[in-house]
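Running co-folding for magnesium ion.
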Amino acid sequence: MPVIEFAGVSHAYQDATGQARTVLREVSVRLTEHRVGVIGANGSGKSTFVRMLNALVVPSFGSVRVDGLDTAREARAIRRRVGFCFTDPDAQIVMPTVQEDLAFSLRRRHLPKEEVARRVEAALDTYGLAAHRTQPAHLLSGGQKQLLALAAVLVTDPALVVMDEPTTLLDLANAVRVRERVRALAPQVVLVTHHLDLLEEFDRVLVFHEGRLVFDGGPAAAVAHYRGLVLT
Ligand SMILES: Nc1ncnc2c1ncn2[C@@H]1O[C@H](COP(=O)(O)OP(=O)(O)OP(=O)(O)O)[C@@H](O)[C@H]1O
Ligand SMILES: [Mg+2]
């Protein structure tokens, strides 16, 4: 598994008046587990934290490394290793049809055409999208779109897949489908969610509260800690 290292990471965003507001404070953590969950209240810093994993956000202080690569200096190399799935798959679907969207993910890999076709076929098959291959991607259902977004990340064969609330917009059946897919993933996974049952079999769960990493442990203990924070 990749080695993720946050060393003394703090982050401030500028608000509309140009004032810096600190949203992540002194986070230091080393993650080597297969499946890592991230939970915490709205606004606690979870998305900011995971966006640092593929250099979507570069920390104001401290450093983030994935397999020794510093996200502030080696964003391109980082993005070849780290796939990112957004909550809203529409943010990620760029090509008109399902199969074109999958092939588009591979554009920077400089793979032979046959290899692109082979990977696209495999992804269509795995994600139950084969029947929709020539369909306009924007006409897929919410669940199908989320599966397409996940498939588009996975065709690139990332070492680490980051998912920020991938089931939030989905109905129960589709949430279960995505959950099954996540369970079967071979690459390392860092997943943010408010669906706490998604994390049942995770190896490690981080709890954020007001920008701080306040708990780090197994899923049951982490969920109990989170409940204690918000329900007291
Ligand atoms: N691009 C941005 N510019 C300015 N402020 C931001 C930006 N992104 C997030 N913030 C602020 O940073 C804080 C942490 O946001 P973040 O999105 O990391 O929280 P979160 O834990 O993912 O919340 P949620 O559960 O609602 O998704 C919030 O107060 C938010 O308003
Ligand atoms: Mg968020």
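Result summary
The mean pLDDT is 93.
DSSP finds seven helices and ten strands in the chain.
Job closed.
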